[in-house]
Amino acid sequence: MRYLLGLDIGTSGTKTALFDEYGNTIRTATYEYNLFQPQVGWAEQDPNDWWEASVKGIKNVIEKSKVQASDIKGIGLSGQMHGLVMVDKDNKVIRNSIIWCDQRTEKECDYMTEVIGKERLIKITGNPALTGFTLSKLLWIKNNEPENYKKIHKILLPKDYIRFKLTDIFATEVSDASGMQMLDINTRDWSQELLDDLRIDRSILADVYESVIVSGKVTEEAAKLTGLAVNTPVVGGAGDQAAGAIGNGIVSEGIISTTIGTSGVVFAATNTPRFDKFGRVHTLCHAVPNKWHVMGVTQGAGLSLNWFKKTFCHKDIEESEKLGKNIYDILTEKAKDSKPGANGIIYLPYLMGERTPHIDPNVKGAFLGVSLINNHNDFIRSVLEGVGFSLKNCLDIIEDMDVKVDHIRISGGGAESEVWRQILADIFQYPLTTIKASEGPALGVAILAGVGAGIYESVEEACCKIVKGGEKVSPNEEVKEEYSKVYNLYNSAYPRVKDFNI
Protein backbone atom coordinates (compact mmCIF):
# COMPACT_ATOMS: atom_id res chain seq x y z
CA MET A 1 0.00 0.00 0.00
CA ARG A 2 1.18 3.50 -0.83
CA TYR A 3 0.63 6.39 1.57
CA LEU A 4 0.56 10.18 1.38
CA LEU A 5 1.19 12.77 4.09
CA GLY A 6 -0.57 16.11 4.38
CA LEU A 7 0.47 18.93 6.72
CA ASP A 8 -1.80 21.90 7.38
CA ILE A 9 -0.03 24.74 9.20
CA GLY A 10 -3.07 26.50 10.63
CA THR A 11 -3.57 29.52 12.86
CA SER A 12 -4.34 27.60 16.04
CA GLY A 13 -2.25 24.51 15.36
CA THR A 14 -0.65 22.23 12.79
CA LYS A 15 -2.54 19.13 11.71
CA THR A 16 -0.58 16.22 10.28
CA ALA A 17 -2.62 13.56 8.50
CA LEU A 18 -1.57 10.28 6.92
CA PHE A 19 -3.73 8.82 4.14
CA ASP A 20 -3.63 5.70 2.03
CA GLU A 21 -3.80 6.10 -1.73
CA TYR A 22 -7.61 5.76 -1.65
CA GLY A 23 -7.94 8.82 0.58
CA ASN A 24 -8.72 6.90 3.77
CA THR A 25 -7.42 8.59 6.91
CA ILE A 26 -4.89 6.37 8.65
CA ARG A 27 -3.76 8.66 11.47
CA THR A 28 -3.88 12.34 12.41
CA ALA A 29 -2.14 14.46 15.02
CA THR A 30 -2.61 18.12 15.91
CA TYR A 31 -0.29 20.29 17.98
CA GLU A 32 -1.29 23.81 18.99
CA TYR A 33 0.70 27.00 19.52
CA ASN A 34 0.23 30.62 20.54
CA LEU A 35 -0.89 33.70 18.67
CA PHE A 36 0.60 36.97 19.87
CA GLN A 37 -1.17 40.35 19.71
CA PRO A 38 1.37 43.04 20.68
CA GLN A 39 -1.17 45.76 19.86
CA VAL A 40 -4.85 45.96 18.93
CA GLY A 41 -5.28 44.69 15.38
CA TRP A 42 -1.85 43.05 15.27
CA ALA A 43 -1.34 39.28 15.01
CA GLU A 44 1.96 37.39 15.03
CA GLN A 45 3.29 33.86 15.46
CA ASP A 46 6.71 32.26 15.87
CA PRO A 47 7.57 30.13 12.79
CA ASN A 48 9.68 27.87 15.00
CA ASP A 49 6.46 26.88 16.79
CA TRP A 50 5.07 25.70 13.43
CA TRP A 51 8.17 23.61 12.80
CA GLU A 52 8.10 22.07 16.27
CA ALA A 53 4.42 21.17 15.81
CA SER A 54 5.19 19.71 12.36
CA VAL A 55 8.03 17.53 13.67
CA LYS A 56 5.89 16.23 16.54
CA GLY A 57 2.96 15.57 14.21
CA ILE A 58 4.98 13.68 11.61
CA LYS A 59 6.70 11.55 14.25
CA ASN A 60 3.34 10.81 15.90
CA VAL A 61 1.50 9.65 12.78
CA ILE A 62 4.38 7.49 11.58
CA GLU A 63 4.99 5.83 14.95
CA LYS A 64 1.32 5.35 15.90
CA SER A 65 0.26 4.11 12.46
CA LYS A 66 3.20 1.72 12.20
CA VAL A 67 3.43 2.62 8.50
CA GLN A 68 6.91 2.24 7.05
CA ALA A 69 8.37 5.65 6.20
CA SER A 70 9.51 4.28 2.84
CA ASP A 71 5.85 3.63 1.93
CA ILE A 72 5.05 7.36 2.23
CA LYS A 73 5.37 8.37 -1.41
CA GLY A 74 4.73 12.09 -1.17
CA ILE A 75 4.19 15.02 1.17
CA GLY A 76 1.86 17.96 0.59
CA LEU A 77 1.97 21.23 2.52
CA SER A 78 -0.91 23.57 3.24
CA GLY A 79 -1.15 26.52 5.58
CA GLN A 80 -2.61 29.81 6.64
CA MET A 81 -2.16 32.22 3.76
CA HIS A 82 -0.51 35.67 3.54
CA GLY A 83 1.85 35.35 6.55
CA LEU A 84 5.25 37.02 6.23
CA VAL A 85 8.24 34.92 7.28
CA MET A 86 11.64 36.57 6.87
CA VAL A 87 14.94 34.70 7.04
CA ASP A 88 18.49 36.08 6.97
CA LYS A 89 21.56 34.89 5.05
CA ASP A 90 22.12 32.22 7.73
CA ASN A 91 18.52 31.03 7.13
CA LYS A 92 17.48 32.13 10.63
CA VAL A 93 14.06 33.68 11.26
CA ILE A 94 14.52 37.45 11.69
CA ARG A 95 11.35 38.17 13.68
CA ASN A 96 7.93 36.69 14.42
CA SER A 97 5.74 36.19 11.40
CA ILE A 98 3.04 38.81 10.79
CA ILE A 99 0.07 36.58 9.93
CA TRP A 100 -3.05 36.79 7.77
CA CYS A 101 -5.43 38.52 10.21
CA ASP A 102 -3.02 41.34 11.11
CA GLN A 103 -4.44 44.78 10.24
CA ARG A 104 -1.52 47.18 10.80
CA THR A 105 -0.74 47.98 7.16
CA GLU A 106 -3.41 50.48 6.12
CA LYS A 107 -0.85 53.19 5.24
CA GLU A 108 1.12 50.76 3.11
CA CYS A 109 -2.05 49.78 1.24
CA ASP A 110 -2.76 53.44 0.52
CA TYR A 111 0.80 53.79 -0.80
CA MET A 112 0.44 50.71 -3.04
CA THR A 113 -2.80 52.07 -4.47
CA GLU A 114 -1.18 55.47 -5.11
CA VAL A 115 1.87 53.99 -6.86
CA ILE A 116 0.26 51.13 -8.80
CA GLY A 117 -3.37 52.22 -9.05
CA LYS A 118 -6.36 50.21 -7.85
CA GLU A 119 -7.49 49.01 -11.28
CA ARG A 120 -3.97 48.00 -12.30
CA LEU A 121 -3.45 46.15 -9.02
CA ILE A 122 -6.65 44.18 -9.59
CA LYS A 123 -5.69 43.48 -13.21
CA ILE A 124 -2.26 42.13 -12.20
CA THR A 125 -2.86 40.50 -8.82
CA GLY A 126 -6.63 39.93 -8.85
CA ASN A 127 -7.12 42.12 -5.80
CA PRO A 128 -6.92 45.70 -4.55
CA ALA A 129 -4.31 46.53 -1.90
CA LEU A 130 -5.26 44.55 1.21
CA THR A 131 -3.96 44.79 4.76
CA GLY A 132 -4.01 41.02 5.20
CA PHE A 133 -1.83 40.23 2.18
CA THR A 134 1.94 39.72 2.36
CA LEU A 135 3.12 42.64 0.23
CA SER A 136 1.72 45.32 2.54
CA LYS A 137 3.36 43.54 5.50
CA LEU A 138 6.72 43.59 3.71
CA LEU A 139 6.36 47.32 3.05
CA TRP A 140 5.43 47.86 6.71
CA ILE A 141 8.69 46.18 7.74
CA LYS A 142 10.57 48.39 5.28
CA ASN A 143 8.96 51.51 6.75
CA ASN A 144 8.98 50.61 10.44
CA GLU A 145 11.78 48.08 10.98
CA PRO A 146 14.44 49.05 8.40
CA GLU A 147 17.17 47.11 10.20
CA ASN A 148 15.14 43.91 9.90
CA TYR A 149 14.35 44.69 6.27
CA LYS A 150 18.07 44.97 5.48
CA LYS A 151 18.66 41.49 6.92
CA ILE A 152 16.19 39.78 4.56
CA HIS A 153 17.62 36.99 2.43
CA LYS A 154 14.28 35.36 1.58
CA ILE A 155 10.64 35.89 2.46
CA LEU A 156 8.39 32.88 2.77
CA LEU A 157 4.81 31.95 3.49
CA PRO A 158 4.08 29.80 6.57
CA LYS A 159 3.87 26.46 4.76
CA ASP A 160 6.89 27.34 2.64
CA TYR A 161 8.98 27.84 5.77
CA ILE A 162 8.10 24.25 6.71
CA ARG A 163 9.08 23.20 3.17
CA PHE A 164 12.46 24.84 3.69
CA LYS A 165 12.95 23.06 7.02
CA LEU A 166 12.10 19.72 5.37
CA THR A 167 14.03 20.14 2.11
CA ASP A 168 16.49 23.06 2.37
CA ILE A 169 14.73 24.46 -0.70
CA PHE A 170 13.20 27.94 -0.99
CA ALA A 171 10.04 27.45 -3.05
CA THR A 172 6.37 28.36 -3.19
CA GLU A 173 3.45 27.58 -5.50
CA VAL A 174 0.86 29.57 -7.42
CA SER A 175 -2.17 29.34 -5.12
CA ASP A 176 -0.46 30.62 -1.97
CA ALA A 177 1.83 32.99 -3.87
CA SER A 178 -1.30 34.65 -5.35
CA GLY A 179 -2.14 35.80 -1.82
CA MET A 180 1.19 37.60 -1.46
CA GLN A 181 0.02 40.24 -3.97
CA MET A 182 3.28 40.09 -5.92
CA LEU A 183 2.22 37.42 -8.41
CA ASP A 184 0.75 38.20 -11.82
CA ILE A 185 -2.15 35.76 -11.67
CA ASN A 186 -2.58 35.92 -15.45
CA THR A 187 0.92 34.57 -16.17
CA ARG A 188 1.19 32.63 -12.86
CA ASP A 189 4.62 34.15 -12.16
CA TRP A 190 6.04 37.09 -10.16
CA SER A 191 5.12 40.50 -11.57
CA GLN A 192 8.40 42.22 -12.41
CA GLU A 193 6.64 45.50 -13.22
CA LEU A 194 4.98 45.61 -9.80
CA LEU A 195 8.23 44.72 -8.01
CA ASP A 196 10.08 47.41 -9.97
CA ASP A 197 7.49 50.08 -9.18
CA LEU A 198 7.63 49.27 -5.45
CA ARG A 199 11.44 48.80 -5.45
CA ILE A 200 11.39 45.23 -4.21
CA ASP A 201 14.30 42.96 -5.09
CA ARG A 202 12.96 39.84 -6.82
CA SER A 203 15.82 37.79 -5.40
CA ILE A 204 14.16 37.76 -1.95
CA LEU A 205 11.23 35.79 -3.42
CA ALA A 206 11.25 32.00 -3.63
CA ASP A 207 10.90 30.19 -6.95
CA VAL A 208 7.23 29.62 -7.80
CA TYR A 209 5.80 26.33 -9.14
CA GLU A 210 2.46 24.78 -10.02
CA SER A 211 0.99 23.11 -6.95
CA VAL A 212 1.45 19.48 -8.08
CA ILE A 213 5.15 19.86 -8.95
CA VAL A 214 7.74 18.23 -6.70
CA SER A 215 9.66 21.20 -5.30
CA GLY A 216 12.14 19.39 -3.07
CA LYS A 217 12.96 16.20 -1.17
CA VAL A 218 13.35 15.44 2.52
CA THR A 219 16.92 16.00 3.75
CA GLU A 220 18.89 13.68 6.03
CA GLU A 221 18.60 16.17 8.89
CA ALA A 222 14.81 16.48 8.56
CA ALA A 223 14.50 12.69 8.22
CA LYS A 224 16.33 12.18 11.52
CA LEU A 225 14.05 14.66 13.30
CA THR A 226 10.75 13.40 11.86
CA GLY A 227 11.18 9.71 11.06
CA LEU A 228 10.54 10.35 7.35
CA ALA A 229 12.58 8.60 4.68
CA VAL A 230 15.36 10.61 3.07
CA ASN A 231 14.40 11.94 -0.39
CA THR A 232 10.64 11.65 0.15
CA PRO A 233 9.17 14.07 -2.46
CA VAL A 234 7.54 17.29 -1.26
CA VAL A 235 5.14 18.93 -3.75
CA GLY A 236 4.25 22.58 -4.07
CA GLY A 237 1.08 22.15 -2.03
CA ALA A 238 -1.44 24.96 -1.64
CA GLY A 239 -2.71 27.77 0.53
CA ASP A 240 -5.25 26.48 3.03
CA GLN A 241 -8.29 27.66 1.09
CA ALA A 242 -7.25 26.13 -2.25
CA ALA A 243 -6.14 22.96 -0.41
CA GLY A 244 -9.43 22.73 1.46
CA ALA A 245 -11.31 23.25 -1.78
CA ILE A 246 -9.49 20.30 -3.36
CA GLY A 247 -10.27 18.24 -0.24
CA ASN A 248 -13.92 19.16 -0.91
CA GLY A 249 -13.70 18.40 -4.64
CA ILE A 250 -14.02 22.04 -5.76
CA VAL A 251 -12.02 21.59 -8.95
CA SER A 252 -14.49 22.58 -11.69
CA GLU A 253 -16.96 25.38 -12.33
CA GLY A 254 -20.40 25.07 -10.77
CA ILE A 255 -19.39 23.39 -7.50
CA ILE A 256 -19.00 25.94 -4.70
CA SER A 257 -17.73 25.45 -1.17
CA THR A 258 -18.39 27.36 2.00
CA THR A 259 -16.10 26.83 4.94
CA ILE A 260 -16.55 27.92 8.54
CA GLY A 261 -13.16 27.85 10.21
CA THR A 262 -11.44 30.65 12.13
CA SER A 263 -12.33 32.74 9.11
CA GLY A 264 -15.22 31.95 6.78
CA VAL A 265 -14.85 31.43 3.05
CA VAL A 266 -17.03 31.01 -0.01
CA PHE A 267 -14.91 29.49 -2.79
CA ALA A 268 -15.55 28.82 -6.48
CA ALA A 269 -13.26 27.34 -9.15
CA THR A 270 -13.17 29.01 -12.57
CA ASN A 271 -11.67 28.12 -15.95
CA THR A 272 -10.45 31.68 -16.56
CA PRO A 273 -9.53 34.56 -14.24
CA ARG A 274 -12.70 36.42 -13.12
CA PHE A 275 -12.47 39.84 -11.51
CA ASP A 276 -14.78 41.91 -9.33
CA LYS A 277 -14.08 45.51 -10.36
CA PHE A 278 -14.49 46.64 -6.75
CA GLY A 279 -12.07 43.99 -5.47
CA ARG A 280 -14.56 42.70 -2.90
CA VAL A 281 -13.65 39.06 -3.47
CA HIS A 282 -10.22 37.59 -4.14
CA THR A 283 -9.27 36.22 -7.53
CA LEU A 284 -6.31 33.85 -7.19
CA CYS A 285 -4.63 30.98 -9.01
CA HIS A 286 -6.13 27.62 -8.07
CA ALA A 287 -3.94 24.70 -7.02
CA VAL A 288 -5.33 22.84 -10.04
CA PRO A 289 -3.11 23.56 -13.06
CA ASN A 290 -4.63 26.07 -15.50
CA LYS A 291 -7.53 26.96 -13.20
CA TRP A 292 -8.27 29.96 -11.03
CA HIS A 293 -10.64 30.61 -8.17
CA VAL A 294 -12.66 33.40 -6.63
CA MET A 295 -12.99 33.60 -2.90
CA GLY A 296 -14.96 35.77 -0.51
CA VAL A 297 -13.65 35.94 3.05
CA THR A 298 -15.30 36.69 6.38
CA GLN A 299 -12.49 37.50 8.81
CA GLY A 300 -14.33 36.52 12.00
CA ALA A 301 -16.39 33.36 11.42
CA GLY A 302 -15.51 30.62 13.90
CA LEU A 303 -13.38 33.29 15.54
CA SER A 304 -16.60 35.08 16.53
CA LEU A 305 -18.07 32.06 18.30
CA ASN A 306 -14.74 31.30 19.96
CA TRP A 307 -14.51 34.90 21.22
CA PHE A 308 -18.12 34.82 22.46
CA LYS A 309 -17.47 31.52 24.25
CA LYS A 310 -14.37 32.81 26.04
CA THR A 311 -15.94 36.16 26.93
CA PHE A 312 -19.55 35.37 27.88
CA CYS A 313 -19.94 31.61 28.39
CA HIS A 314 -18.21 30.66 31.64
CA LYS A 315 -21.27 28.78 32.91
CA ASP A 316 -21.59 26.94 29.61
CA ILE A 317 -17.93 25.95 29.79
CA GLU A 318 -18.46 24.59 33.31
CA GLU A 319 -21.49 22.68 32.05
CA SER A 320 -19.51 21.17 29.17
CA GLU A 321 -16.73 20.05 31.52
CA LYS A 322 -19.24 18.54 33.95
CA LEU A 323 -21.10 16.65 31.21
CA GLY A 324 -17.99 15.80 29.16
CA LYS A 325 -19.70 17.41 26.17
CA ASN A 326 -18.21 19.63 23.46
CA ILE A 327 -18.74 23.29 24.39
CA TYR A 328 -19.67 24.23 20.82
CA ASP A 329 -22.34 21.53 20.72
CA ILE A 330 -23.84 23.02 23.89
CA LEU A 331 -23.76 26.56 22.52
CA THR A 332 -25.26 25.75 19.13
CA GLU A 333 -27.99 23.67 20.73
CA LYS A 334 -28.90 26.68 22.87
CA ALA A 335 -29.06 28.78 19.70
CA LYS A 336 -31.77 26.37 18.55
CA ASP A 337 -33.94 27.61 21.44
CA SER A 338 -33.94 31.09 19.92
CA LYS A 339 -35.76 31.70 16.63
CA PRO A 340 -34.75 32.91 13.15
CA GLY A 341 -33.75 36.54 13.51
CA ALA A 342 -32.53 35.96 17.09
CA ASN A 343 -35.46 37.95 18.53
CA GLY A 344 -34.23 41.14 16.90
CA ILE A 345 -30.47 40.95 17.55
CA ILE A 346 -28.17 41.41 14.58
CA TYR A 347 -24.48 40.60 15.03
CA LEU A 348 -21.78 42.14 12.84
CA PRO A 349 -18.76 39.78 12.83
CA TYR A 350 -16.10 42.45 12.34
CA LEU A 351 -13.78 41.51 15.21
CA MET A 352 -10.66 41.77 13.01
CA GLY A 353 -11.93 44.30 10.48
CA GLU A 354 -13.47 42.84 7.33
CA ARG A 355 -12.55 41.75 3.79
CA THR A 356 -15.77 40.83 1.95
CA PRO A 357 -17.75 42.79 0.99
CA HIS A 358 -16.22 45.66 2.98
CA ILE A 359 -12.47 46.14 2.55
CA ASP A 360 -12.17 47.81 5.93
CA PRO A 361 -9.49 46.92 8.47
CA ASN A 362 -10.87 49.37 11.05
CA VAL A 363 -14.56 48.50 11.25
CA LYS A 364 -15.60 47.07 14.61
CA GLY A 365 -18.07 44.31 15.42
CA ALA A 366 -21.41 45.00 17.07
CA PHE A 367 -24.60 43.57 18.51
CA LEU A 368 -27.52 45.68 17.28
CA GLY A 369 -31.18 45.68 18.25
CA VAL A 370 -30.74 44.44 21.83
CA SER A 371 -33.72 44.79 24.19
CA LEU A 372 -34.96 43.44 27.52
CA ILE A 373 -36.66 40.49 25.85
CA ASN A 374 -33.31 39.06 24.74
CA ASN A 375 -31.52 36.25 26.53
CA HIS A 376 -28.26 34.31 26.28
CA ASN A 377 -29.62 31.99 23.57
CA ASP A 378 -30.55 34.94 21.34
CA PHE A 379 -26.99 36.27 21.48
CA ILE A 380 -25.56 32.87 20.55
CA ARG A 381 -27.94 32.54 17.61
CA SER A 382 -27.18 36.08 16.46
CA VAL A 383 -23.49 35.16 16.22
CA LEU A 384 -24.26 32.13 14.05
CA GLU A 385 -26.61 34.19 11.87
CA GLY A 386 -24.24 37.17 11.58
CA VAL A 387 -21.53 34.90 10.23
CA GLY A 388 -24.10 33.37 7.87
CA PHE A 389 -25.14 36.79 6.55
CA SER A 390 -21.51 37.74 5.97
CA LEU A 391 -20.96 34.51 4.00
CA LYS A 392 -24.10 35.25 1.97
CA ASN A 393 -22.53 38.60 1.06
CA CYS A 394 -19.66 36.58 -0.43
CA LEU A 395 -22.00 34.25 -2.32
CA ASP A 396 -24.04 37.14 -3.73
CA ILE A 397 -20.93 38.80 -5.22
CA ILE A 398 -19.70 35.54 -6.74
CA GLU A 399 -23.11 35.00 -8.39
CA ASP A 400 -22.99 38.59 -9.70
CA MET A 401 -19.68 37.70 -11.41
CA ASP A 402 -21.55 35.13 -13.54
CA VAL A 403 -19.96 32.20 -11.77
CA LYS A 404 -22.20 29.14 -11.99
CA VAL A 405 -23.63 27.82 -8.72
CA ASP A 406 -24.90 24.27 -9.23
CA HIS A 407 -23.96 22.71 -5.89
CA ILE A 408 -22.70 24.07 -2.56
CA ARG A 409 -20.56 21.93 -0.26
CA ILE A 410 -19.95 22.86 3.38
CA SER A 411 -17.00 22.05 5.61
CA GLY A 412 -14.91 23.32 8.52
CA GLY A 413 -15.37 23.19 12.27
CA GLY A 414 -18.56 25.25 12.18
CA ALA A 415 -20.06 22.83 9.65
CA GLU A 416 -19.93 20.07 12.26
CA SER A 417 -22.86 21.79 13.99
CA GLU A 418 -26.22 20.62 12.64
CA VAL A 419 -27.77 23.88 13.87
CA TRP A 420 -25.23 26.11 12.13
CA ARG A 421 -25.51 24.10 8.89
CA GLN A 422 -29.28 24.57 8.89
CA ILE A 423 -29.01 28.29 9.61
CA LEU A 424 -26.60 28.69 6.70
CA ALA A 425 -28.85 26.71 4.32
CA ASP A 426 -31.80 28.87 5.37
CA ILE A 427 -29.88 32.11 4.82
CA PHE A 428 -28.38 30.99 1.49
CA GLN A 429 -31.65 29.38 0.35
CA TYR A 430 -29.55 26.68 -1.30
CA PRO A 431 -29.21 23.02 -0.30
CA LEU A 432 -25.82 22.30 1.28
CA THR A 433 -23.93 19.01 1.15
CA THR A 434 -21.46 18.08 3.86
CA ILE A 435 -18.21 16.43 2.83
CA LYS A 436 -17.06 13.20 4.42
CA ALA A 437 -13.42 14.22 3.91
CA SER A 438 -13.13 15.85 7.33
CA GLU A 439 -9.39 16.43 7.05
CA GLY A 440 -9.94 19.27 4.54
CA PRO A 441 -6.70 21.04 3.58
CA ALA A 442 -4.49 18.12 4.72
CA LEU A 443 -6.37 15.79 2.37
CA GLY A 444 -6.25 18.38 -0.41
CA VAL A 445 -2.46 18.61 -0.34
CA ALA A 446 -2.11 14.85 0.05
CA ILE A 447 -4.04 14.59 -3.24
CA LEU A 448 -1.61 17.10 -4.79
CA ALA A 449 1.28 14.99 -3.46
CA GLY A 450 -0.30 11.91 -5.05
CA VAL A 451 -0.41 13.65 -8.42
CA GLY A 452 3.20 14.77 -8.05
CA ALA A 453 4.26 11.23 -7.09
CA GLY A 454 2.44 9.72 -10.07
CA ILE A 455 -0.21 7.89 -8.03
CA TYR A 456 -3.01 9.88 -9.73
CA GLU A 457 -3.06 11.23 -13.28
CA SER A 458 -4.69 14.52 -12.32
CA VAL A 459 -6.27 16.40 -9.44
CA GLU A 460 -9.69 15.99 -11.04
CA GLU A 461 -9.29 12.21 -11.34
CA ALA A 462 -8.16 11.92 -7.72
CA CYS A 463 -11.10 13.97 -6.43
CA CYS A 464 -13.59 11.80 -8.35
CA LYS A 465 -12.17 8.73 -6.63
CA ILE A 466 -11.69 10.12 -3.15
CA VAL A 467 -14.09 12.95 -2.31
CA LYS A 468 -17.58 11.78 -1.39
CA GLY A 469 -20.60 13.85 -0.43
CA GLY A 470 -22.26 13.36 2.92
CA GLU A 471 -25.48 14.65 4.47
CA LYS A 472 -27.65 17.06 2.49
CA VAL A 473 -29.21 20.02 4.30
CA SER A 474 -32.23 21.57 2.58
CA PRO A 475 -33.32 25.16 3.23
CA ASN A 476 -36.52 25.73 5.17
CA GLU A 477 -38.86 27.68 2.88
CA GLU A 478 -40.91 28.83 5.89
CA VAL A 479 -38.11 31.09 7.13
CA LYS A 480 -37.12 32.48 3.72
CA GLU A 481 -39.11 35.70 4.09
CA GLU A 482 -37.94 36.30 7.67
CA TYR A 483 -34.29 35.85 6.78
CA SER A 484 -34.66 38.04 3.70
CA LYS A 485 -35.96 40.84 5.94
CA VAL A 486 -33.18 40.38 8.54
CA TYR A 487 -30.52 40.15 5.80
CA ASN A 488 -31.63 43.53 4.43
CA LEU A 489 -31.29 45.01 7.93
CA TYR A 490 -27.87 43.40 8.31
CA ASN A 491 -26.73 44.96 5.02
CA SER A 492 -27.96 48.38 6.10
CA ALA A 493 -25.85 48.29 9.28
CA TYR A 494 -22.32 48.70 7.91
CA PRO A 495 -22.71 52.32 6.70
CA ARG A 496 -24.03 53.21 10.16
CA VAL A 497 -21.19 51.67 12.18
CA LYS A 498 -18.15 51.96 9.90
CA ASP A 499 -16.99 55.25 11.44
CA PHE A 500 -17.67 54.17 15.02
CA ASN A 501 -14.05 53.97 16.15
CA ILE A 502 -12.51 55.08 19.42
UniProtKB/TrEMBL annotation:
Keyword Nucleotide-binding: yes
Coiled-coil blocks: none
Reaction(s) this enzyme catalyzes, per UniProt: D-xylulose + ATP = D-xylulose 5-phosphate + ADP + H(+)
Record keyword Kinase present: yes
PROSITE patterns documented for this protein: FGGY_KINASES_1, FGGY_KINASES_2
Positions of the Carbohydrate kinase FGGY C-terminal domain: 258-452
InterPro entries: ATPase_NBD, Carb_kinase_FGGY, Carb_kinase_FGGY_CS, FGGY_C, FGGY_Carb_Kinase, FGGY_N, Xylulokinase
Task performed by this protein: Catalyzes the phosphorylation of D-xylulose to D-xylulose 5-phosphate.
Identification of the protein by name: Xylulose kinase
UniProt organism field: Clostridium cibarium
Lineage of source species: Bacteria, Bacillati, Bacillota, Clostridia, Eubacteriales
